[in-house]
Structure prediction request, 362 residues.
Amino acid sequence: MTDRIWNFGAGPAVLPEPVLKKAMQDIWNVAGSGLGISEHSHRGKVFDKVIKETEQACRDLAGIGDDYHVLFLQGGASLQFSMVPMNLLPKDRTADYLVTGVWSEKAVAEAKRFGTVHEAVSAAATKFDRIPPVSDIKYSSNPVYVHLTTNNTIYGTQWISEPPVPAGVPLIADTSSDMFSRPIDVKKYGMIYAGAQKNLGPSGVVLVIMRNDLVEAGSKDLPTMLQYRTFAKEHSLYNTPNTFGIYVMGEVFKWIKAEGGLAAMAEHNAAKARVLYDYLDQSKLFKARALPGSRSLMNVCFFTASDELDNKFVAEATRAGFEGLKGHRSAGGLRASIYNAMPAAGVRALVDFMKEFERANG
Prediction:
């Protein structure tokens, strides 16, 4: 489409064009109902069909069984930083956290409000430029759960696979920026949560996949809206959810399936990332932030020799039709977020632009 630019923003992020085109139609008149999806009651037949189809599409993509609830919540992943320990961390127990970036640090800070937190490993000493080796992880004697962030948007690192956890201890993962970018074995987790706005849909929805026994194990002394059982019992419809966001998530799930499923997404994403990292590794001007072996396939963080040159690159890239390349304010530098919906052509166009910039400024 000639009136669209390349969106490399970290979130809210690029959405698949077929989904956007379908949403354009359905925000006006969905399913021939004469009303747009955003106008339908969350208790009505049209939205009831939408949310059921969205949940089933999610289950189908990852092979999620009936022993897990699939919930669509609000408050972003940031609220989950609090809801997880509120529900699952008694004051006399310890939760173990694997700290690999700003978002896992924020999760730790919230958890400390409710119980004891043990940082089983941290990459802070190396400014989060890598995922720590499994051998560095030192779990506490009896953690109630282990928490990790699978992909780090700010520093561009990603766990290649799940680290081993103590037997019988549930693994809880914030997968906000790489959920459904590759196959995921849900059985390895007690709980998975993901803000939708990076790889699953628009902002305002959080996908929660939670084992049934953990839902029931949650504290009953919390406000109603902060208990997972509230939403599990009511199938995410205790109160009015983000109906449009859930609809778009369902369309994204269908798009992923049509593209070949999670295995195909993994191949697509690895190929895109390889194009950009290969260029960065041979460039004399641009340098990748994350070390090989820890590099994210979703968020490629890099920099030039100076802040001034970084800013010049962002300004010229914006004029050339590339959006969202400025790094996070806490890390600086540059960042290209290449989620599922970013076409390979967009990455190739970016690399071509970077080569021209290097020729002019190297």
In short: Residues 261-361 form a domain with the Aspartate Aminotransferase, domain 1 fold (CATH 3.90.1150.10). The mean pLDDT is 97.
